[in-house]
């Protein structure tokens, strides 16, 4: 049970990420090896023209295009500093030894090591599990202030720590990779942040609509774009060939993404103002108006209600305005005129924790401009609310214009 008193005023915190594992890929062919297996472009890590890009979000795919596991890849800064290598030059110079650190869910570590070694072939690389040599932390700060704290970065880097921007969205703060030999010094530097359990991190990312790890990404059953990979900066559609590229590219360029993962919370009556719910559709480069990590509609439901069972079907309705077209197959005389079901439901719960859940919903049932116009019930008739995900503003450009009927 979560102690609500300890998180009701939480604005920033330090979270030890003990459920994550780290793999180092080092060698002359490290770039070549990973570039052919990931959905994103590793060249961006070494592009000096791109500021604050010290990590990228990636997916490793099976040959059929389904997701095997997700990851955050960063440069092994300790390697480059120790060997006095210019990060900006990297693989352009023949014989340069590159080194990358892959941050993954510990539950997929065996599959990840097998996958990386399977395609090693003649590449001159070493693949090493380095989890036991480091401590990984996440600093959450919804105001983005931590992301801009250059003095903190400078002190940590002097202690051989790596500052890793969370590449999925600035609202997820930073990750700090600390060698075990420097753990005492870094703990002192990070003492200004309240240390909390890792469960808080997972609740926060779920509230922002960010899936992560084996629990949220079923191995071999996940189409990356349905899980918002491109909205979380996880896909480069111009990088060239990689394993499993065909399905991802075809889905993107033909516009066949008809459902997506959205953050849900069990509905309660005492909530914050509507304007706070709309904060995600304003300028995404600015911090949210609400600075608490968890708004009222989450806090007031955490210990009261339990999310629906995983894989349980949801009943989703969208309140239509008079100007909107209602598909013919949704006509149901028993439904009120303003609340007609858009289509037959296969919307369902993917994962959850306490009152929060990630749900797969058909996009045409969601009013992305006013989320409260989408009404969701579970099989027992309990109501859920869609939370504004951090990537919501990006989905606007993906929406086709609404067709009007005369």
Automatic annotation (TrEMBL):
GO cellular component: a single term: mitochondrial matrix
Keyword Ligase belongs to the record: no
Gene3D superfamilies assigned: Probable tRNA modification gtpase trme, domain 1 (3.30.1360.120)
InterPro entries linked to this entry: TrmE/GcvT-like (IPR027266), YgfZ/GCV_T_CS (IPR017703), YgfZ/GcvT (IPR045179)
Subcellular location: Mitochondrion
GO biological process: iron-sulfur cluster assembly
Source taxon at top rank: Eukaryota
UniProt KW keywords: Mitochondrion, Transit peptide
Protein name: Mitochondrial transferase
Organism this protein belongs to: Polysphondylium violaceum
């Amino acid at each position: 049970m979560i102690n609500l008193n300890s998180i009701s005023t939480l604005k920033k915190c330090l979270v030890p990420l003990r459920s994550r594992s780290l793999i180092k890929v080092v060698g002359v062919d490290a770039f070549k090896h990973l570039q052919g297996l990931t959905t994103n472009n590793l060249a961006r890590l070494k592009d000096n023209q791109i500021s604050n890009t010290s990590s990228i979000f990636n997916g490793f795919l099976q040959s059929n295009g389904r997701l095997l596991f997700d990851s955050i890849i960063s440069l092994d800064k300790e390697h480059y500093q120790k060997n006095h290598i210019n990060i900006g030059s990297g693989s352009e110079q023949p014989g340069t030894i590159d080194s990358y650190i892959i941050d993954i869910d510990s539950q997929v570590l065996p599959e990840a090591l097998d996958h990386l070694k399977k395609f090693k072939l003649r590449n001159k690389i070493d693949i090493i599990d380095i989890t036991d040599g480091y401590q990984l932390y996440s600093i959450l700060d919804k105001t983005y202030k931590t992301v801009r704290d250059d003095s903190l970065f400078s002190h940590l880097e002097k202690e051989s720590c790596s500052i890793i921007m969370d590449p999925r969205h600035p609202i997820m703060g930073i990750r700090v990779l600390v060698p075990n030999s420097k753990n005492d010094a870094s703990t002192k530097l990070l003492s200004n942040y309240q240390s909390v359990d890792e469960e808080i991190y997972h609740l926060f990312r779920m509230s922002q609509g960010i899936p992560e790890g084996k629990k949220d990404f079923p191995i071999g059953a996940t189409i990356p774009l349905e899980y918002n990979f491109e909205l979380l900066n996880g896909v480069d559609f111009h990088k060239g060939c990689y394993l499993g590229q065909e399905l991802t590219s075809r889905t993107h360029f033909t516009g066949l993404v008809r459902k997506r993962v959205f953050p849900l919370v069990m509905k309660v009556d005492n909530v914050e103002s509507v304007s706070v719910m709309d904060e995600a559709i304003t300028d995404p480069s600015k911090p949210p108006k609400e600075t608490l990590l968890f708004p009222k509609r989450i806090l007031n439901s955490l210990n009261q209600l339990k999310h629906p069972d995983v894989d349980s079907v949801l009943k989703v309705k969208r309140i239509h305005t008079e100007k909107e077209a209602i598909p013919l197959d949704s006509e149901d005389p028993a439904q009120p005129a303003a609340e007609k079901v858009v289509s037959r439901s296969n919307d369902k719960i993917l994962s959850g924790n306490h009152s929060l859940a990630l749900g797969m919903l058909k996009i045409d049932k969601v009013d992305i401009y006013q989320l409260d116009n989408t009404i969701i019930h579970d099989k027992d008739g309990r109501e859920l609310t869609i939370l504004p995900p951090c990537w919501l503003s990006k989905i606007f450009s993906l929406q086709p214009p609404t067709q009007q009927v005369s």
